[in-house]
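Hi,

I'm pasting everything inline rather than attaching a file, because the server keeps stripping attachments. The sequence lines come first, and each chain or strand is labelled.
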Amino acid sequence: QKEVEQNSGPLSVPEGAIASLNCTYSDRGSQSFFWYRQYSGKSPELIMSIYSNGDKEDGRFTAQLNKASQYVSLLIRDSQPSDSATYLCAVRTSYDKVIFGPGTSLSVIP
Amino acid sequence: GAVVSQHPSRVICKSGTSVKIECRSLDFQATTMFWYRQFPKQSLMLMATSNEGSKATYEQGVEKDKFLINHASLTLSTLTVTSAHPEDSSFYICSAPPGSDTQYFGPGTRLTVL
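And the predicted assembly:
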C-alpha cells in the first residue's frame, strides 16, 4: 500500500465549476497535511495546510480533513483555467517525513 | 512568504562529469533543508535531509557517495551529483522549512546528462 494516494486523473471540469481532489494516507499517526499546486516545469507551491479535523477555507479553496477515515480533500470553487495544474497532497508522517502523493492533474475547460 | 533560491536553473552536462546544485534560503535561516528528485509525470521523491553542521540523512535507495550533500551554513545547502549518467537526468528541487511546519520549495534545477 502506498503511503499517500490520490484520485487518478486527469480531472476535467468546466470553468466556474467545483473541482474536487481527494487524498488518502496510510500512517494513522500523521498530523500535518498539505496541498501543493505544481505547474508543468515548475516547483510546487503551497496552497493550504490543515492540521485539525473539519474544513479550512481560504478564498476559493477549501481543505477538508477526516483523520478517522485518513482522508484529505481539496475543493476548488469557481474553477478558473489558471487553476489547471497538478495538485499534490503531502503528509507529514509520524516518523517526521513529508511524503507526497502521485498528484492529480486538473484541467479547467473554458 | 519565505524565499528559497536554486542555482543553476538548468544544466546540461556530459556523462561522467559532476554537477553542483546550490540551494539558498534568502530571508531566513534553515538548519534543515530537503532535496527531492522528480522524474517526468511522477511525484516528488525525497532523496535526503540536509542538516547544517552534520551529515546528511539519505533515504533508502539513494547512494550517498553519488549524491554528495553539504550544508555548510544556515542559508546554503549544496547537492553534487558525481559522475553523472543519463539516468540521473531529472528535476532536482530543494526545500526548507522556515521554522514552521510548512516547506517552501526552490524553483528547481533541470539536469540533463548526455
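The first strand of chain B starts at residue 4 and ends at 7.

If the labels don't parse on your end, tell me and I'll reformat.
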